[in-house]
Amino acid sequence: MPLYDRDYMRDEPSRKRVARSWLPQWTALHWIMAVNVAVFLAQHVAGLGMAIDPEGRSVPMGGASVNALLEGQFWTIVTSLFVHQTIVHLTFNLMFIWWAGSRVVSLLGSKVFLNIYFLSGLIGLVVQFAVSYFILDSTMFTIIGASACAMGLVLAFAAIMPHESVTTMLYFIIPVNVTMKHLALGFLILNATMGLTALVWHVAPWAGVASFAHLGGALTGWYYVRLLGYGGQPMTYEQLWNQQSAPRPRPQRREVARVRRSRPIPAAPEIDEGAVRRRHQSPGRSVSPVVEEIDPILDKISTLGMNSLTESERRQLEAASREMAGKDKPSVRGL
Q1: In this structure, what are the phi and psi dihedrals at residue 172, rounded to the nearest 5 degrees?
Q2: Using one digit for the tens of pLDDT, what is the confidence trace for 124-158?
Q3: Contact assessment for residue 85 and residue 95, using Cβ atoms and an 8 Å cutoff
Q4: Shortest CA distance to 6 belongs to which of 33, 27, 32, 35?
Q5: Which of 115, 116, 255, 312 is most buried, by the most CB atoms less than 10 A from its CB?
Q6: Which CATH class is domain 3-10+25-245?
Q7: Chain-centre distance for alpha carbon 226
């Protein structure tokens, strides 16, 4: 995305800028955060959208499952991305969404952020449903939370800047500096380990965690920014800024470019200035000296194009153009 196509680089009219000064300057990231918090408060504080499961526990409605989709509740694939079971679940997801999402918005814009958020969540659901149905032979597995979306944003930022150094808290106590590449790899290994062990050990404490949804969301975020052209050579903020601010070259078809390269450049034909002068000095035709001077140049342009002119011919053509424009300008007389 070009630098000046982003929201914060657009120059708005003064009236619209003044009107927006009275409103909060929110991006898509702020709205996603606000919706997650609002849904949690509506369900767990106001008691709206809650249900009782077969075990007698109060659970939030809006989760996605194979059974719900078979019953026609297709909206759950979206609502499940904003529903959380506990305050800890919500807090951790919002921390990662804010931390990685703010960097994605600043680098790629709000539209890309939203695409990664929803695509990571939806594909994460598909992966978890496939594992539950084909391996566990279960259609009752209900998925809630924005963890897959958060993982997609983390992997997206890691793909853009794999060597960016961040500080993490080991065991929530020891600060450790790691690169985004190693942090993303650690998340992938952790979720893959939890998911595979849960397939074998069904009573594992983490068996209820949708680890394969996390993996699907993470790989979706990584692959999405790869499609945008990132993730190859290591990128820095300075290189990204220079890349976005530089003017884009005009697109050119490869076949046309190949033909042009293989076609020999024709030699400039010799201009018979005497013939040109005789043509313009035919009986009954009046030609100004300016036209006589630039006429060979115009013939050269029609034959070889504008790029064939020398610097002196260009200056002569510009001077003649200014002279002719001055003669054609109508005079204004005072009343």
Answers
A1: 60, 20
A2: 999 999 998 888 888 888 999 999 999 999 999 99
A3: no
A4: 27
A5: 116
A6: mainly alpha
A7: 11
Instruction: Determine contact, residues 150/136, Cβ cutoff 8 Å.
Output: no
- Long-range contacts of 192-196, Cβ-Cβ distance < 8 Å, separation of 24 or more: 195/131
Phi-psi region of 16 (alpha: psi -120 to 50; beta: other; left: phi over 0): alpha
Range in 47-61, 132-146, 275-289 the model is least confident about: 275-289
Q: Residue 294 in 3-state DSSP?
A: helix
**Cβ-contact 100, 150 below 8 angstroms:** yes
Q: Is the Cβ–Cβ distance between 104 and 116 less than 8 Å?
A: yes
Q: Say if residue 331's pLDDT is above 90.
A: no
* Residue that is written with structure tokens 């120059």 in the block: 11
At 253 the pLDDT is: 43
Q: What is the CA radius of gyration of the chain?
A: 33
Structure tokens at 169: 């808290």
Contact 159, 226 (CB under 8 A): yes
Residue span(s) of the chain under CATH 1.20.1540.10 come to 3-10+25-245
Q: Decide which of 200 and 266 is more confident.
A: 200
**Among 90, 306, 94, 127, residue whose Cα is nearest residue 214:** 127
Q: Residue 309 has what DSSP assignment?
A: -
Q: How far apart are CA 216 and CA 128, in angstroms?
A: 8
Q: What is the tens place of the pLDDT at every residue in 14-30?
A: 455 544 555 568 899 99
Count how many Cα atoms sit within 13 Å of the Cα of residue 284 in the half-sphere of its side chain. 0
Return the closest-CA partner of residue 101 out of 152, 34, 169.
152
Report if pTM > 0.85. no
Of 214, 218, 216, 195, whose CA–CA distance to 89 is shortest? Answer: 214
The more confident residue out of 93 and 313 is: 93
